[in-house]
Design brief:
about 110 residues; alpha+beta; 3-stranded antiparallel β-sheet; two-stranded antiparallel ribbon; 3 helices; about 15% helix; globular
Length: about 110
């Protein structure tokens, strides 16, 4: 739902962000991802693609690709992260729950 998502640049920043959100109440639990330094953009907006596969057999390997997938876009044009813009999550994260609340969000099928 977009709750608890934040971007940090250093481990020290992570510790501060987690302490501010009370994440340590039940012990440290989090998922971290490495930020892609030079992401692909479409018309200046960062995006990601969700492609769904069904693995129907391991031996022999059989995989089926779903006909439909999902493309998610940021609602703020992408700029490389800096200390001043890293807090603008809708320019760096394609999370649907975050971006769907923004004025520039367009719900298309």
């Amino acid at each position: 739902q977009g709750h608890g998502i934040f971007i940090v640049r250093t481990r020290a920043d992570l510790e501060v962000a987690m302490a501010a959100r009370g994440v340590y109440e039940a012990g440290p639990r989090y998922v971290c991802q490495l930020y892609v330094a030079h992401p692909l953009t479409c018309n200046g907006y960062k995006f990601d693609l969700r492609v769904y596969l069904v693995l129907s057999s391991l031996c022999p390997l059989e995989v089926r690709l779903a006909r439909e997938g999902l493309a998610r876009f940021c609602t703020v044009p992408y700029e490389a992260p800096t200390a001043t813009n890293i807090a603008i999550r809708t320019g760096h994260l394609t999370n649907y729950a975050l971006n769907s609340k923004q004025e520039g969000f367009a719900r298309e099928q």
